[in-house]
Amino acid sequence: MLFNYCVCSFLPEPFSPRINLPMGLKPNLTSVELSLTTVIKRLQKELLALQNDPPPGMTLNEKSVQNTITQWIVDMEGASGTLYEGEKFQLLFKFSSRYPFDSPQVMFTGESIPVHPHVYSNGHICLSILTEDWSPALSVQSVCLSIISMLSSCKEKRRPPDNSFYVRTCNKNPKKTKWWYHDDTC
């Protein structure tokens, strides 16, 4: 029997982000500051692109970026002619200090989570570009387009078969889940 769904297991708690330096060495704060400046510039560029040329059915929630540039909410409307036509969803993007070399944390949030074979009821999304297939060449817009495509190609609204177990036992951060991808379609 073949199953078309994502199976997950859990990674151990992540290692501390602190760097252990040999005795006598001090961190180069200018390189840390330079790295953060690079992240902020990249996020500002992507924010502007999302505001000026959003993917179809996507709108940046302006309130979400008033206090921080590292957490965005994108409002989404299901594409016409699909199972999700007219439905409204929200995507939460969280960016680490390693962005764009590390993928953003992306999940559905709010009261309406799409019923989809690759979307868990807690909003976690089983999509390879959010983890192992991430590349710094990708952007928020490309992630949004992939999610639109994933929803638009769905033939049947249903949750992943392991939804109940996963939601009860998973980490709140979907990036701490080890995903195994078994299919490319819904």
From TrEMBL:
Signal peptide: none annotated. Its EC number is 2.3.2.23, 2.3.2.25. Keywords: ATP-binding, DNA damage, DNA repair, Nucleotide-binding, Transferase, Ubl conjugation pathway. Residues 38-186 form the UBC core domain. GO terms for biological process: DNA repair; protein monoubiquitination. It holds the Pfam family UQ_con. InterPro entries: Ub_conjugating_enzyme, UBC, UBQ-conjugating_enzyme/RWD. One of its GO terms (molecular function) is ubiquitin protein ligase binding. The keyword Transferase applies. It catalyses: S-ubiquitinyl-[E1 ubiquitin-activating enzyme]-L-cysteine + [E2 ubiquitin-conjugating enzyme]-L-cysteine = [E1 ubiquitin-activating enzyme]-L-cysteine + S-ubiquitinyl-[E2 ubiquitin-conjugating enzyme]-L-cysteine; S-ubiquitinyl-[E1 ubiquitin-activating enzyme]-L-cysteine + [acceptor protein]-N-terminal-amino acid = [E1 ubiquitin-activating enzyme]-L-cysteine + N-terminal-ubiquitinyl-[acceptor protein]. Accepts ubiquitin from the E1 complex and catalyzes its covalent attachment to other proteins. Catalyzes monoubiquitination. Involved in degradation of misfolded chaperone substrate and DNA repair. This is N-terminal E2 ubiquitin-conjugating enzyme. It comes from Esox lucius.
